[in-house]
Design brief:
This protein has 239 residues and is mostly helical. It is 76% helix and 0% strand. It contains 15 helices and no strands. Helix 1 (3-24) packs parallel to helix 9, helix 2 packs parallel to helix 4 (54-65) and helix 8 packs antiparallel against helix 9. The radius of gyration is 21 Å and the shape is globular.
Length: 239
């Protein structure tokens, strides 16, 4: 390996560790929030071990804490997690992992690993970034989830400390830089309006499901507007 490759690898590892540590520590907030919502330590740890996608986990326990139906809460968490499937489609091409490894790597396909991987210039760097971010984040997230669930009683009401807002804040911080186009911003804005606007009138968990309609609604409106000038220019359409 030449010095340039070693320098590149070191930079990728450094960045991946930074992301993994920074986000992994927020698992403590999830552990506290989950325990405050009534889940046991075992249930809380199982969510982090098996689900391992922070936004979906916070959405689930948040809906349960608000008195939402468990099925509705799970559905909202599921729809938030669907984005990881789309990440996986792209990462499968970039990582080009052996078939035997792919099911295990799929567990680490989340916002942070995708962001680090996509920022790398070569396949080697992509694999290093994905692996280091995923391993660091998985270990820290589960460890701090456990500690948070155990310490929930000592901390008391999570709303007093603002820990119930830590998960959404982290998710928004990761999402904001990705909103580069007008369409993406429109989808995000409409989703916020729908989610917050319907929060007081719909059962917990349902506003998240309704907010998921923002993407098809914006894309439909964009397609309709794009077709209007063409119809006018060609003389088509009713007169």
């Amino acid at each position: 390996m030449d010095p340039a490759e070693r320098t590149t690898d070191s930079a990728v590892v450094r960045d991946a560790l930074g992301v993994g540590v920074a986000v992994g520590l927020s698992g403590f907030a999830f552990g506290v929030t989950s325990a405050g919502a009534g889940l046991t330590v075992a249930q809380t740890c199982a969510l982090s071990l098996l689900v391992f996608t922070g936004a979906s986990q916070f959405a689930l326990v948040g809906a349960l804490a608000a008195g939402g139906n468990p099925l509705t809460a799970a559905a909202g968490a599921f729809f938030l997690g669907v984005r990881n499937a789309f990440y996986g489609l792209r990462l499968s091409q970039l990582l080009a992992l052996p078939r035997a490894v792919r099911p295990f790597a799929a567990q680490w396909v989340i916002d942070e690993t995708t962001a680090v991987a996509l920022a790398q210039p070569t396949r080697r760097a992509i694999r290093i970034g994905f692996t280091v971010t995923g391993a660091t984040l998985y270990v820290l997230w589960n460890l701090t989830t456990f500690l948070g669930a155990l310490g929930a009683e000592a901390i008391g009401d999570t709303r007093t400390w603002g820990l119930d807002a830590a998960g959404p804040a982290v998710f928004l911080a990761l999402l904001a830089p990705m909103l580069r186009t007008t369409t993406e911003r429109a989808v995000a804005g409409l989703a916020v309006v729908l989610g917050l606007g319907l929060l007081p009138v719909l059962p917990a968990g349902v506003p998240v499901l309704v907010a998921s309609l923002a993407a098809p609604a914006v894309l439909w409106a964009r397609g309709r507007n794009a077709g209007t000038p063409s119809d006018t220019a060609t003389g088509g359409g009713p007169r």
